[in-house]
## 1
Amino acid sequence: MQRIELMAPCHFGLESVLKKEIIDLGYDVSLVEDGRVTFIGDDEAVCRANIGLRTAERVLIKVAQFHAETFEELYQGTKAVEWEEYLPRDARFWVAKAASIKSALFSPSDIQSIMKKAIVDHLGQCYNMTKFPKDGDAYPLRVFIMKDTVTIGLDTTGESLHKRGYRKLTAKAPLAENLAAALIMLTPWNKDRILVDPFCGSGTFAIEAALMAANIAPGMNRHFTAEGWKNLISQNTWKDAFEEAADEVNKDIVCDIQGYDIDDEMVSIARQNARLAGVEDMIHFQRRDVADLSHPKKYGFIITNPPYGERIMEKEDMAGLYTVIGERFKNLDSWSLYMITAYEEAEKYIGRKADKNRKIFNGMMKTYFYQFMGPKPPRQEIRQKG
């Protein structure tokens, strides 16, 4: 495959984290938009990005972009795409999702059906076919219309990248794996520093941190839709990308990652998820109330997702909970606290204004990533650990 444009959607507010990841993989970023980063790659990039990106939701091949204010313009613009370059004769294709913002065309179901008809008409002429198979390899498409500009992407991922494959059981209000990874990346934490999550739930923060520490690629143990696209990406390209990821794993490291929860069942679930992720030996899970949070060492990190008062606890319980968080944090000398929550009075009851506060959309819910930064370790101590 020649050089192509690839699009990677992500959580709103975390585009800069994904951009850095893509650059670190060795690819040039061409555009950063709300909730999406576009970059230049090739067939190898499709494989490496799916396997290696921790903060993206999926990887799309940018097929076309055009202006459309009417359904006729949408039909003609879609039909004009050279679909035979992407879809073989036996392809099973459909418009899996359509989204529209500030555009004349706004009905997702109508957008999907008209685009499907346009593709069928184009390929019917190209392949001289009237019927298309329903049992070939899947080629799902996604379309996004913003201010009447239609962008079509071919979905190489399939099931969202946040589904690493290790989280078989979850808490009542789980944090998506890619969101947890992005939030960790927004902190200065590294594998040489202590990390504690006192509301660990199903263990997502702790497990994602351990995967980073051991350099285990998030997509190593799952499959992707584009693995079946032999017309676009060879099996050897996928094989090489998986082998590259396996070669970079380093589990011979010592790290201090801990997860606490007041619920015995959640602690058990977290341990099982860590075992499935292959990082069970790197994390200490324990039943413990946040009121008992303490640690003898300095310069540690609390990275956590406490209850918001939306689904798990009542609003009136929040003040007491966040007061306890603030008291325990105050007693942890030189530690830093990084916390995502939708509770807007968090700073008031923690008793300190955050050094930084980042607005992030967790699904449709507006949340805040509060960053209470502690001091850096002395240079001498860093050198000794090194």
## 2
Amino acid sequence: MIERDWEQWETEVEEDAASGKLDFLMDEAVAEKAQERLQEL
């Protein structure tokens, strides 16, 4: 059950990334980097 949920979630994320729904995350990261506000994890 957990593995199936994980696979479904992964598929949804891949589809969202391909459709551009997650582009705002890249835009946010680029803006943060430009302002030197990123932190190493």
## 3
Amino acid sequence: MKAIGIDIGTTTISGIVLDTEKRQVLEARTVQNGSFIKTEHEWERIQDVDVILDKAEDLVKELLACCPEADVIGLTGQMHGIVYLNRNGRHVSPLYTWQDGRGNLSSDGHKPLTEQVMDKTGVFIASGYGLISHLYNLRNGLVPQEAVSLCTIGDYLGMVLTGRKYPLVHISNAASLGFFDVQRGGFRKDAMKEMGIDPSILPEITEDFTELGRYQGIPVTAALGDNQASFLGSVGIHKNILLLNMGTGGQISALSDRYFEAQGIEARPFVKGKYLLVGASLCGGRAYAVLEHFFRSYAKTAGMEEASQYAVMAELAERGMKGADRLKVCTAFNGTRAEPGLRGSITNIGEDNFTPESLTFGVLEGMTRELYDMYCLMREGTDLKAERLVASGNGLRMNPVLQEICSGMFGAELILADFKEEAACGAAVSGTMVKGIMEVDTHEMTIQMLPEEQGN
């Protein structure tokens, strides 16, 4: 059986062809998303839906040209964000992405919207979650008149491919919109009404991996949340194997039979009866990019040619790792989901350790500690134990010192995910798990990239 998986990421759109019998990725393609829309608001992060769809559909066509015998198309994409739809199931808005900051704004001149929701309903919802963006839009007259429903961008691609007029959303994506009771498996409609949100805008949800319809005769399945897809594609369904991602942000994910939440830790629906415990650092790999910009700016001011500093920083990190009295760096440069106003810091500064190498190593260690602290909360509340780490994201893939820091801090072996497109792979796997198509034993699923295909 061969399955196509498509992943609509924030910066890239990826697609793969997975051979489930050989457990190999036969084809892999990645294109730049490139759809951000410039606006006058610094807090606004929106993307052009038409640009995304054109690129995603072209990717589907290209993969089908390589593999016309494909049996199923599975989908995933960036969670939390929303697209508004009209009665014909077509978009009438841009994509309000997970990075959008309107939820941290005030609509009454006082508290941010997120705090207003917490105070009135007791529901925590972070800025960037679709329904807090919707609430801001409601209060500011920004919801299109034609809008009758909303969904994530992965869900919308499924609608376009199959001609559906109303969204059917997997519970993993539904929960990412906010106002969702994960234990009960449904939206908190009473809380939404308290805030003035009409629940009729909500999509239909499903707990199963479900067929949406057909594209050129090939079944297309409901989109899986990208966090769950990445876990499925790189870890499978295994306990005590943690997925660490360091890219645009940072994230730690672990499978649990037990529902558990704490400050900064979410329990996200996965497969029936199982949850993904997830912690996210908002800055993540960007903290290292901020440091690179600092060094680059200094070099330019000192009269040197402006150039990337990452190669120099790699040497600095190596030397910084050998130091005993190190700088302590908090890399919450963009705050946290629970405390968006929090900022980073550098402590333990001494006359001998205030050096570029100590700072570079300290930033990498700080990036790791944010995720490790989240793991400690998970471990205290469940029977979770880190037996192995699976690393994904270029921030980890391309930084051996960061890999060593992670392995040492967590006290577990770290291995790299077999290939970069783990979310697209998870989407393909979820497609094969649709009842009536094929059931894949994900406990035994090990995905490998063919050497000759790695350059694609």
